[in-house]
Design goal:
The chain is an alpha+beta fold and about 140 residues long. It has helices spanning about 30-40, 60-70, 100-120; strands at about 5-10, 10-15, 25, 50, 75, 80-85. Strand 5 (about 75) and strand 6 form a beta hairpin. The model has no long low-confidence stretch (mean pLDDT about 85).
């Protein structure tokens, strides 16, 4: 995409001649990398960036929907290959974000912790010790 990255002590990225579209193959599917590439590519007007081995999480699908609502051409969000056709400027939209996966899972986790807190634990003898048993 035309960016030089320096990772000495802190991360610095410079695109002296501006960003340009690219075909990017991620070694490992990464939500953070996919999001950052999608955001950068969204403002490379008239050019198409392709992300291969993109993250497929619900957050990526939601970001694709948001960027599309703002005028960016996004296809393939939620698959391993995402295409982003950038625009000169984003326009406003109304978008409701999806719930955070960790927050959404908390209500299912809490009852198990309450049961665990009510259980009593005593140290068994060496011969019968099982670190996974709770009595």
């Amino acid at each position: 995409m035309g960016t030089e990255i320096d990772v000495r002590g802190h991360i610095t990225g410079v695109a002296e001649n501006g960003l340009h579209a690219a075909k990017i193959m991620l070694d490992t599917a990464s939500v953070g990398a996919t999001v950052n590439i999608m955001l950068a590519a969204s403002l490379i007007a008239g050019e198409e960036t392709i992300i291969l081995n993109a993250a497929r999480e619900p957050h990526i699908v939601d970001l694709g929907k948001f960027l599309t609502s703002c005028g960016v051409g996004v296809t393939g969000a939620g698959t391993s290959e995402i295409h982003i056709r950038g625009v000169r400027a984003l326009h406003g939209c109304t978008h409701f974000i999806i719930p955070d996966m960790i927050e959404a899972g908390t209500p299912t986790w809490l009852p198990s912790q309450e049961r665990a807190a009510k259980s009593s634990w005593s140290a068994p003898s060496q011969s019968t010790w099982n670190p996974w048993s709770v009595s």
